[in-house]
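Cross-posting from the modeling subforum.

Setting up a comparison between two proteins and wanted a second pair of eyes on the formatting. Protein 1 (sequence, then C-alpha cells):
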Amino acid sequence: MTLCRVITEAGDLRGKRVLVRLDLNVPIVNGEIRDAFRITQSLPTLTYLQEQGAKTVIVAHIEGEGADTLKPVYERLSLQFPIVFKEKIEDVLEYEKTMEDGSFVLMENIRHYEGEKKNDEAFSKQLAEMGDIYVNDGFSVSHRPHASVVGIPAFLPSYVGFLMEKEIKNLSLVFSAPHPFLFILGGAKFSTKMPLVEKFLTIADTIFICGALGHDIFKARGYNVGKSLVAKEELDLSTYITNPHIEVPSDVVVETEGVVSVKKPNELGETDSMRDSGPETIEHLKKLISEAKCVLWNGPLGEYERNFSTGTEEVAKAIAETKTLSIVGGGDTLAVVDKLGITDKFTFVSSGGGAMLDFLANGTLPGLKAIEEGKK
C-alpha cells in the first residue's frame, strides 16, 4: 500500500498559498450539473483548507460533450465558499496579491493548456508558481502522467488530500481481503484490464468476467459472437479459458434486429449482439455474492447506457443487501448505484474508474509516485 504525506502534516497553513488538484469533471448538460458526486467528494479537503486559513488555488479539468468550461462548477462551489473564477495562470498570480486567508480561486480548465497532457516541465514550473505547497486530491485523475498531476511535485512540497487518503486506505483492503473473495469485472477494453486479472488470480477466489470482456473470452473459445462488441486488437486469452478461478456468463441477453431474447453464449448467430448477462447468470452471481466475505466490483454487466441494465442493477442490489466487505467503482457502476439510491449501502464507493483499476493492479499511481519522489 502506498502511503503519502497527508495535508494535515503540512503544518500551519494560514496565509500560505495551497495549489490543489481536484477532479471536478462532472457531467454538464445545458450548463447544468447533472451529477455533483466528484464535487461532493472534494468538499472535506476544501473545508479543511478554508478552516486552516489557506489561500487555495484549485486546478481541475472538464471535458465531454457540451462541457469545456468550469464555470458551472465555480457557481456550485460559490454556494459554499468565498471563491473567484480566473481564466489564466497570470490572472491567478495577480489575484493572489490581494487574496484573503481562507478564500479560494478556481482556474479555468487546465486542459486548455497544451503543456498539461504533455507534462511539459516548463509548464509544470509555471503552475507551481501559483502555490507554496501542492495537494493532490484528484484520485480519479492520478493515473494520468499530466503536468498538474505528476509535474508540480518536483517543484513544491507535496501532500495528498482527504479523498486521496480515503481511496488508498479503502482500496488497499482488498490486498488482504477475507475469503471467499469475489471480483466482478465488467465493461470493455480487455487489453487494459489484463494486468488486473493477472494480479487478482492470486488474490481472489473467483473472478467473474462479464460485459464486453466476457465476449472476448467467448471469442477466444471459438464461439460465434455475431455483432457483439469485442476488442479490436488480437488478444491471447488462452490461459483464461480453462482457469478454474475465472467464470463468465452461462447465458446472455441477445438483441437480433430489434428482437431481444436469451441464449447460451455458444448459440449466437451472425446477426446477434450480446447486450447483458442472462437470468441464469444473475441468479448464479447472487449466490456467489451471498457466500462471499469480500466483493470487489468494477464495470457493468451489459450495455447499461442502451437500457440493458437488468443484470447490472440486480447485482448492485444483491451486493448492497449483504453485510460483506464491498468495494465498487467505475463511472458506469457509480451511475447505477446512484440511480438506485444505494451508494451508502457499500463499504466503499471509489471515485475512480481507470485510476481505481491502475491502483489495484500496481498498488500505486503516477500521481502518488510523484509526491513520494518529489520535493519535501
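Protein 2 (same layout):
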Amino acid sequence: MLTEFGKIFVFMLLAIFFVIIAVVAAKFIRPSRPTKEKLLTYECGEDVVGSPWVKFNIRFYVVALIFLIFDVEVVLLIPWALVYKEFGMGGFLIGAIFLLLLGLGMAYEWRKGDLEWVKPKVIPPVIKKELTPEKVEA
C-alpha cells in the first residue's frame, strides 16, 4: 500500500516519463529540413549586427518594473469602479485611499528620478577648508 508521499512520487515519475516520451516522439515525427534561413538567429530576415552580449542600462528594467507595478494596481481599479456604488461611502473612501496611495507612489518615483531615462549625476558636496589665523600669518 502506498503512502500519500508514495503516490506523489509515482505521479512525478509518470509525469517525467510522459515528457521524455513526448519529446522523443516529437523528434522522430517532426520534419527536419534545415535551410540557411532557418539556421539564422532571427528568422524574420534581419541580419545580425554586433554581439548578442550587449550590456543594457539597468534603467530599462527599473522603468519596466515600475510600469508593471502601477499597471497591475490600475487594473484593480476596474472592478472597484464597477461596484463602488453598491458599497456606499465606505467603498468609495477605500478606493479613494487606494488612489491616493497610488498617486503618492507615482510622485515618489517621479521625484526620485526613476522615471527619467537619463538619471542626473549626483555631485558630491565638497568641504572647503577655512583659513585659520595661524595659516594667514604664515
